[in-house]
Design a protein that fits this description.
heterodimer, A: mainly beta, Methylamine Dehydrogenase, Chain H, four-stranded antiparallel sheet, 0% helix, globular, B: mainly alpha, two-stranded antiparallel sheet, two-stranded antiparallel ribbon
Chain lengths: 299, 719
Amino acid sequence: MPFPVYSRNVPLKEHVGPVHVVRYNTTGKYVLSGGQDRKIILWNPNSSKLVKSYIAHGYEVLDIAVSYDSSKFVSCGGDRTIYLWDVTSGSTTRRFSGHMSRVNAVDFNADASVIASGSYDAKVRLWDTKSSSQRPIQLLEEAKDSISSLQVVGSQIVTGSVDGYVRVYDLRMGQLFEDLIGHPVTSVKDSTDSACLLVSALDSTIRLMDKSNGTMLQSFKGHLNKEYRVRSSFGDNDVYVISGSEDGKVYAWDMLSGRVVHELKGHGEKVVSCVAYHPKQPQMISCGTDGLIQVWDYI
Amino acid sequence: MSRKRPLSTVQSASTNAESVFLGTPIADADANAFTPVWKQEARDERGRKRFHGAFTGGFSAGYFNSVGSSEGWTPSTFKSSRTARADQKVFRPEDFMDEEDLAEQRADERLVAAAPFSTISASSTQSISGTDVQDLLRGGRGGESVGYELLRKMGWKPGFGIGAAKSQMVAGRKVMMPPRADETAMSGIRLTRKLDTHGLGYDSAMPSLRPSDETSGVPGGWRAPGTISKKKNSGIGVGVVNEYEDGDDEDPYEIKPIAYDRVLGSKKQKGLGVGASKHVFVSKNKPKLISASSSSAATSTRASKLRRCHDGRLPLSGFVLVTSGSLATSSMLTGEKEYAPPSVPETYISGILILRDPKTVITAELIANFERSRKSSSSSVLSARSSSATQQQRLTASERSRILGSAQDHLQGKSVFDYMTPAQRERFANVTGNQNLPPAKSEVVPTSSHAEHKSGERNVAALLELIPTLDKSQASTALSAGFMPYADDAEKRSRYITYLESQSGTRRLTDVLAFARSGDSDTAPGKLRLEDWMRELKEFNKAAGLFRPLKGMLGNRFTSSANASTTKTSVVDDDNAVLLQGADLKKGLTDRDDVRAAKMGMYGPLTRRVSAWAPSGLLCKRFGVRVPNVSAIEISGGSVESTAAAREKLELLSHQKLLDIAKDADVSEEVTKRLEDKNISSGGLKIDVEVNEALEQKKAPRDLFLAVFGDSDDDSEKE
């Protein structure tokens, strides 16, 4: 499929201040965004209309994850709290608190029965959504520094930490694989076939790591990522690798060759903090510290 | 609608007809007699058609039959309750009643207790009749007991027994059948005929029914057979507010049969009896025993002579009043002898007290004496034990052995006083205030160096005990706090640091003693009197607690990424956590293999650590994963150990490989040099850079590569 290179004339503008995260729902019909203004906004990216805004957080919203059926989503942020939302009613159904400092990353497992949250306190807490218990099921304390990114893939919990390690907790094997990247990790993303990991680090490099033996398969360079948490992602069934950048551009690489195929300007000179690729169509969204959410299409 | 059809019209019609009437005309009522059945019409005595056929409304109704609506008994058409649920009405009998019926019903209404309460109220107010007891036994609902109902709900049928199904031969086939009733004990409640004169429900096997048993005074103390051992008893009419000290699973509403052999108000007596003095009359003929036993008991009896009974009268002549709780009673009543506590021997010196007294000047003799007294007294072990737990903990094995060794030394029969001059003994007696010291023999120390050494050791051990202990971690944190007190006094500061280091374990404990002036003769500068030395050490102890970095709750919030060396189950021993930013990287982390490998982009087995991780059972359940047997992984050492072994073997390879790559990648010369140095230093293995033995061996490296690198063979082939 072609790569979406054209941005809309009017970007999605509702957030005041930086937007930290954008996420498609499972069908790709809607987009959720969370920002510094403590709001979570549900957008229709096709009509560029605001659908709903969800307000409960007391501090900035740092990460959002959508459940498999798109009926609920979970959000976390600077208020050290994790909220579980009902999408239609717009109300929070659960609240998990226990982290000592801001929660950077959050994710559901496959059937949304467990929420994994990674925090600045270097801990990953696993919460049970099925029981009413307020205590986490388990605490993962191996990281030595802030957990910046986290993903639950099948029976694995993948965490990226500022201590330079990518940790894969394998439930099935009962093993922990710690891969030293050598630079603070800002983003981990699992490939569609779950064999590789896309790891962004603060040396302006994105690495494609083999999960089975920890070797590096490909590296992607060209963008700027020295200070901020900039998320990267796969696109179009792992054909592309996309990432934000601190120079205001969205970069796209060809996964196999590792060459930059697109540099898209859309956020001025501000940091592009998060990108997300549509699960089915050639569409992409990006958000940045300029408070805009750009929708990229191919037409 | 039915019409009235007068008889006259029929008659007139018949008269009009031109026919001859013979005989009696057939009665009009029997007009249908000759019509076929299906043509006949049913009419009432007044000739009205009342039955209209099943399909036209059945019995006629309507106003004429005073139903109240013109439609009469019109069957209501079916309405789905799904769409019109709110319109659905549930009719009560009252809806079909008229005023008269309702008034009648109202008149009949009475206020009565509901069914579950009625049995209780009935049974508690009136004496239980036989049927009531039966009801209680059988479940009270007129039917079967609860057990029966439960069993029946579970599929049991009366007549069957209880238990696992048994295979039986039925009509030549083998079928699983429940056991018959006679095979098991299940035969319901047997109502045997009552022949004795006991009350209903009386069971002689139950101790709680006996009158001697103390219960809460409520009439009704029958409990279930399983609860006999329980102290507290409850009966009918006991509310929730009643206290249940021991019974958390006791049901206050449990229905129990009533015991009749009860005395009301026994609770009052019990309340009086508990805690208060119980009157016991003791004959005065016995007081010899009391006075002989102990003086205190005698005084108590003297006092009790004046005491009156609870009714205000004096006790009977010849008896005294004794409280049951007092010591005298027990001895008096049981007749046991009382013994006075053992008297402390006058020669006993409490050694601990001497040392605790701040005014005492601690001398070597004193300490030695303390040691001696500790050992000479039979309770030496006890006193040692009673000395604080910190001392106990601080004693190392060598120290203990030294103490034991000195004890043996003492057994030879020599004491410090044997070596004392009379003058010294005099001063010692003055200090301790104890004049009963053994005479000073002023013996010459035989092998002076050995004995001196011994006594010196003893002194050291005693002094070491005096050093206030500090938590090891606390000491190390105080050392690394950055801020050091006593900036104005360099010597004191050095002493402070020495103390901290000795407590943190980096320095020997005896180094602290170097600052203490041991005896009275030594007046070397820079040394303190023992008193001052001790005071200073205490001060240090407090200071270390005070001058510490962020600790406790605040400190725990920060995770040090650079020096957290508590990597669990790490493969490499010298593994530290890494923060590859800033100065730390430049300082000491570069010489770590994995960091170097990561730096060079050699991701793979060098940068990977595998360790066992135990997910919790609930987590596995939520993820739909079987709980992995982590312990098996660890014990058999499957992956972890093998990885470690592989790493060990790889050590050689990796160094070599790093060297090569370092050359290729044009890394700084220093790294290469250091690597080479390490190669040589580690195990003294001489490795020629040009000829690599490990690589020359064809088979083993191949396996290794396969095992470790998997499919990344091309890397090895490149070399």
